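User: Structure please.
Assistant: Input sequence and predicted structure:
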Amino acid sequence: MFDLGLAKLALIGVVALIVLGPQRLPRVARTVGTLLGRAQRYMSDVKAEVSRELEVEELRKMHADLAHSVHQEEQAIYDAVTSSPAQNPIEENISPSTSSWRPATSPKRSNWRIKQAVLPVWYKRAARKRAHLQSAAARMVRYKPKNLSRSF
């Protein structure tokens, strides 16, 4: 930018001392330093903003390229699947009644007890859920009507 050496800075200092005087020179020097600091911060902010914009533009271009390649791959897979049913071994094993990807039967609740045990006891009390599980035999003994009990 400017080529200021030690000799030039000394000449500028002597001229400023003669023109401004010894009383106003420190105040003017502080003001000039503050203004130069602001200018440097402004220039660094502008440089950072420009570099961010360049990076964003680069990312947008990469995103567009990636989206285009993904679309091409999806189209190629779709064309391969729908090209002909005789060439596709996956579709030969599927009957027309099971064309959906969902299973025909409902999923089992084998992990229901595990999910119930994960809940804390205070939540079960607040939500009025059973805190203790009983086996079927214990439930039958507890709730068995009196007229069905046999005496031996």
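The mean pLDDT is 78.
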